[in-house]
Each structure stands twice: as C-alpha cells, then as structure tokens.
Amino acid sequence: MEDSLHNLRHGDQPKIATLDIPELYQCVHCGLCLNQCPTYRALRLEPESPRGRIHLVKAAADGRIELNERFKEHLYLCLLCRACETACPSGVQYGHIAETARAVIGPPGSKLGRIILNLAFTQLLPFPGRLKILFGVLRLYQRTGLQRLVQPLLPRKIRQMDAMLPAIPQRRSQANAQVLSAIGPRRARVAFLNGCVMPLLFGDINDATVRVLQRNGCEVVFPKGQTCCGALNTHNGETSSAKEMARRNIDAFLTAGVDAIIVNAAGCGAAMKEYGHLLGDDPDYADKARRFSSLVKDAAEFLAQIGLAGKLGELRMTVTYQDPCHLAHGQRVRSQPRQLLQAIPGLKLVEMNGSERCCGSAGIYNITHAEMSQQLLQEKMPAIAATGAEAVVAPNPGCMLQLRYGAQKYGPNVEVYHLMDLLDRAYASGESSPANEG
Predict the structure, then answer these.
(1) Residue 169 lies in a domain
(2) The domain containing residue 351 runs over which residues?
(3) Cα-flanking dihedrals φ and ψ of residue 347, to 5°?
(4) Spatial distance between the Cα atoms of 361 and 79, rounded to a whole number of angstroms
C-alpha cells in the first residue's frame, strides 16, 4: 500500500485501480460518518469530513489534484479519532487510509517545523534516556521559577503550549526489567508496556496498574528491549521509525512467554493491536506481528475478561467517564471500563452526553492544531459539568492532560483520574478495612 502511494510523490500518478488500498473502495458515501466527525461538526465543510477526505485521497491517487499544502491541511486537520469507523455501516477503516496518505505526503507546515517533528519522532521517542534528560530539563524550568518569568514574553501560540505543559513529577515509575510475583494464586503471566512518556509523566499510574494486576493474580513481566509503541509516528506519517519500534517490541515481548501484553494508554494499545497491518508487507515480521497484536489487551479489557479478584474497599465519590477515542473507536472497548468502575463499592457512575466524542487531545493535535483542539475541549467541558460529577475518569494520558487543562481553564473544577488509579485506591481501602485487620 505504502509503496504504491509513494509513487505519487515522484510524479508517477497511477490510476486508482493500481493502488492497493481496499478501504478506498468500501466507502458508499452514505454520510453516516459526518456528524460523528469532530471537524465536520465544527466547520460543516465536506473536505473536513471522513467522506470528503476519502474523496480527496482518491482524487490525488487518480492524478486529478495536487499533493500540495492545502491537501495536507485537509488530511492533518483530522484528529484520527476514528469515530467515523464506529458509525460506518460498510466497515471502512478510515484510519488506514489517512495514515497511508500521511506517510506519502509528510507533515504540513514550515521546513523547520517538519525537521523538529522528525527529530522528535526518530531521535527522541525511541530513546528513554534522551526523554529522561528532556523531562529533567523541563522540570528544572518549572521548579526554578523560570517558567513564570519567561511565559509572559512568549508568542501567543507558544505561550498556550507552555501553559498546557503539566507539572513534571520528580518520581518516576518504579517498574523495571524484572518479574513481579502475583498476589495470591497465579491466574496469568502478563507483560507490561512501560511506554515512553507514561513513566515520566504518569509513573504513579503505571505503578498503580501493576499493583492492580498483581492483586488479580497476575505475574507481571517487564521485557527488556521494549520501546515506544510508535503511535505518534504512525499518526503523523513517519512510518519508518514506527516499523522499527514495532519490530523491537515484537522481539522483546514475544520471547517473554506471556498470556497477554497489557497496555494502560489507549493510543498505545490501538497502535500495537495494528502491528499486523503496519508490518503486513514485511515477510520476516508479518506473522509475528499478527501474533503479537492478538496478545495486546487494554488493562480494563483484560481485567474485565478475567474478573476482578480480592476485596475492593469503598470510594465514596461520583464520577463520569470519558471514552478515549482509541479505546472506544480504535479498540472497541467501551463496556469493560464502566463494568470495573461499577464494581467499586460506594462509587457512583453518571454518564455524560457525548462521552465518545473526542476531547481534542489526539496525540500532539492540541499542539499542532490548538484552535480546533480548544474548540472541541470547550464542547466537552459543559457536558462534564452537566453530570454533577466531582471527577472524570479517562484511561489515556493525552485525554487526562487535556481534561485537566480544560478543568483549569474552562471549568468545572473536577479531578481527572485514570481508571487504574481508582481501582488501586479501592484495593488499598479494602485491604485496610477493619474486616481485613488482624
């Protein structure tokens, strides 16, 4: 698929029939995707809808339009939330179309911007040591007061990006390359994806996830050699490094002898479940990639499947649930997180209107398309307020950062939690309750 489309970049304009993109021909232009698409709802323009973008890719493949900056803008304004895939009666895998086209045309914007993105995707994300240094510098920038001094002097767009930067914690995830024993009878042996940013920004959530897995009879393995999942690379057209990262993860995890590969970040899980597609043309890895993808489970998906064990203590609170796009639409995991929340004694779950609608985070979208991202966030926050909940549960790091920023900037003033954090607290509460003492 990618090789065929690659010809477009060099003036060899093949006919659509010569391109191996079956998803292009499944669309029947019914329009059921339109009102599920965030950018179409906001702008009411056909080129900013899934149907319209599919038509543009067909036209480009047929040589009827140029692969210029305007074409790029239409494809990259898409958040790749994949809500259109949920709505599509024909089963069109729109994400595959968009990612393939992006791999051909590259990112939009200035040459300098493209260089910076390429360096981030190829020279930063795959290397945990470099990320650790970067986040250490950012932490000093915040803790020394330099951020407060510099921020008013920054250009508006950079200032907004700086304001969205979360507080960098000093403590990182304690998970490392070892095996942690199950608590109680062993029910499964699982491998855990540390991730690239999760250990640095959300180390406490990684640790909470591991504790919950242990309490549910899981022996947890942290394979050496694992790396970034490659999701951001794939979404932004940088597939070369994404494929290399996929191969490294496949080699690391498949030799671990596990029943499942557990992920607690929705975007990572969706990307890893599609390694079979990403490496479908690699004769050495295609079969291994499909086997790897079959083992990948979101933490909530896996726990709901095996059933919660042990005693959960009370958490007296009212929460609402935000469906991460790449969990609900990308992985079709919707009921399982709710099932786990409802298993916590004392916790009340109130559904919000449009919980499956994108919050505007979408990887780095809230940086590259800040205006549209903020428009979607402003649509989301009143829906949260209407529930009367004191907290939002969103099991994905990007959603958590976006919603925390929304609570601070637009209100309501709610806490934002990962599902695994609440489960971990409930187990801790259950273990410390009087019934378990002595």
Answers:
(1) no
(2) 311-434
(3) -90, 130
(4) 8
**Closest to 269 in 3D by CA, of 209, 219, 315:** 209
**Where is the domain boundary, 61, 79, 105?**
105
One domain, residues 101 and 116: no
Angle between helices 370-387 and 397-409 (to 10 degrees): 80
How many domains does the chain contain in total? 4
Structure tokens at 143: 């803790």
Assigned domain for 170 exists: no
Tokens of 108: 């939009």
Each residue's pLDDT, cut to its tens digit, for the chain (438 residues) gives: 444 444 444 444 433 333 457 778 888 999 999 999 999 999 999 999 999 999 999 888 888 888 888 999 999 999 999 999 999 999 999 999 999 889 888 887 777 777 777 788 778 887 888 888 888 888 888 888 888 888 888 887 777 777 777 788 877 666 665 899 999 999 999 999 999 889 888 999 999 999 999 999 999 999 999 999 999 999 888 888 999 999 999 999 999 999 999 999 999 999 999 999 999 999 999 999 999 999 999 999 999 999 999 999 999 999 999 999 999 999 999 999 999 999 999 999 999 999 999 999 988 888 889 899 999 999 999 999 999 999 999 999 999 999 999 999 999 999 999 999 999 999 999 887 665 543
Domain boundary among 250, 278, 305: 305
Half-sphere exposure (CA, 13 Å, Cβ side) for 136?
Answer: 6
Q: Is the pTM of this model over 0.85?
A: yes
Same domain, 124 and 242: no
Q: Tell me the two tokens of residue 343.
A: 């298993």
Flag whether 172 is in a domain: no
- The answer to the question of residue 337 being in a domain is yes
